[in-house]
Amino acid sequence: KKIDLLVLKKISKFFYESLSTNGSIWIICQNQILDNKLLPMPLIISDLFIKQGFVFQNMVIWPHKVGQTLNFTNFYKSIVFLTKNSSRFLFNKDLIREKHIWKNVEWGKRKFRYHKKGKDPGNVWLPTKDDNKGKITEHLILNDDQVKRRILDVSSNKGSNTLLVE
């Protein structure tokens, strides 16, 4: 399947013109193989959208078994996070914070290190379960709906302008 860069440029222009000045766009994508060469689609998409005027905010890694690439099995998807404005966009990380696994182990003298609403989810979305003693017992792979919910929770509310593209 051939990747048409001209079509991607037109799409990025359409999204840029459609999005409000404080809007954001999240693009779920993964590397592709074309003519036995690996195409780093998250990087290609990021570059095209930045050239269109978007501001690159971050790239989230979503562990997710997606299949074979050229050399290794690909166990993740990327989520490119872009905004139309560098400082005016909705981003409420508190709504997707995770449970602190060390809270009951070292909370006392190191309390200043911990946010009262939970652990920062970071840009690798792989929540964990623990034994309430600071030992991780399981890594939780988020499904499609859970990832989409996270994106909408962190970046949208009533009246906001958020695009989610797969």
Descriptive report:
Helix content is 25%, strand content 29%. 17% of the residues are buried. With 166 residues, it is α+β, with helices and mostly antiparallel strands. The chain starts with a helix and ends with a strand. Helix 1 (5-18) packs across helix 2. The longest helix is centred in the first third of the chain and has 14 residues, at 5-18. A 4-stranded mixed beta sheet has the order 4-5-1-8, with helices on both faces. It has a two-stranded antiparallel sheet with strand order 2-3. The chain has a two-stranded antiparallel sheet with strand order 6-7. It is flat, with a radius of gyration of 18 Å. The protein has helices at residues 5-18, 41-52, 103-106, 144-155, and strands at residues 24-29, 32-34, 37-39, 55-68, 73-83, 128-130, 136-139, 162-165.
> What is the terminal separation in angstroms?
17 Å
Beta-strand content: 25-35%
Shape: flat
- Major sheet: 4 strands, mixed
Number of strands: 8
**Cα gyration radius (Å):** 18 Å
What's the short version?
The protein contains four helices and eight strands.
Task: Please specify the SSE layout and strand pairing.
Elements: H1 5-18, E1 24-29, E2 32-34, E3 37-39, H2 41-52, E4 55-68, E5 73-83, H3 103-106, E6 128-130, E7 136-139, H4 144-155, E8 162-165
Parallel strand pairs: 1-8
Antiparallel strand pairs: 1-5, 2-3, 4-5, 6-7
Key traits:
29% strand, two-stranded antiparallel sheet, 4 helices, 166 residues, alpha+beta, four-stranded mixed β-sheet
